[in-house]
Amino acid sequence: MMSAKAAVRVMGHYLARVLSYGFNLKMFACFTRFCKRVYWYSLSRRFRQVGKGCFIEYPAVTLGERYIILGNSFQSYAGLRLEAYDKHLGNEYHPEIVIGDNVSLNYNCHIACINRIKIGNNVLMASRVYITDHSHGSIDLEALATPPALRKIYSEGPVIIEDNVWIGEGAVIMPNVRIGKNSIIGANAVVTRDIPSNCVAAGVPARVLKCLREQLR
What's the number of domains the chain is made of? Predict the structure, then answer.
């Protein structure tokens, strides 16, 4: 005999199938956009500061919003994780995330902070970009003797991304890194050291492939 929960699930499937015959995709899209806008207005009140014209698409995961500043016209597609941790395993931190004007993030980007992450103006990120200013555990015997989930997180330094930077799909920006203005980070690159301004960098670890400093003088 079918359980009550299973019966409700089956009825739901049949009801959805019947309703689909009179379904209007345009009306549904409008309703979805309206709901996402309501979600954003509710979420925006949590942040330390929000500029004009900002929008984070649902769904998103945000933590420590009181430590986060969003500049004018910040835009993020669905799947954003924007996290500022002030506590972890009993340890206290003083995070700050500052994002400039006209910054655009594609789907499923992840920014995690316990120290400081600053993103300049007019920065563009493709999907699945990961930016962190900390590591989960250190590489020593004491850390290796501790289960990964119980290791202390620590920061080796802030992440600074200057104006007009373009970061490609799947790139990872590691702690204690500065990316200079106008630079381009290639898809799936892992940035472990500073990248000068006006350069193209790619690879694992990322290295400078081309620099336009001479031409721009």
Answer: 1
13 included as an active-site residue? no
Token pair of 162 as six digits = 């200057």
Q: Is residue 151 one of the residues assigned to a domain?
A: yes
56 vs 141, which has greater pLDDT? 56
Other residues' Cβ atoms within 10 Å of the Cβ of residue 5:
8
Q: Is residue 117 within 8 Å of residue 159, measured between CB atoms?
A: yes
What confidence tens digit (pLDDT) does each residue in 138-175 have? 777 777 788 888 888 889 899 999 999 999 999 999 99
CB half-sphere exposure, 35, CA atoms < 13 A: 8
> One-letter amino acid identity for 108?
N
Write down the catalytic residue from 13, 110, 134, 136. Answer: 136
The pair of structure tokens assigned to 95 is 């995070």
Say whether pTM exceeds 0.90: no
Place of tokens 């009306």: 27
- R_g of the chain, CA atoms, integer Å: 21
CATH number reported for the structural domain that contains residue 44 in this entry = 2.160.10.10
For residue 165, give its domain range. Answer: 25-216
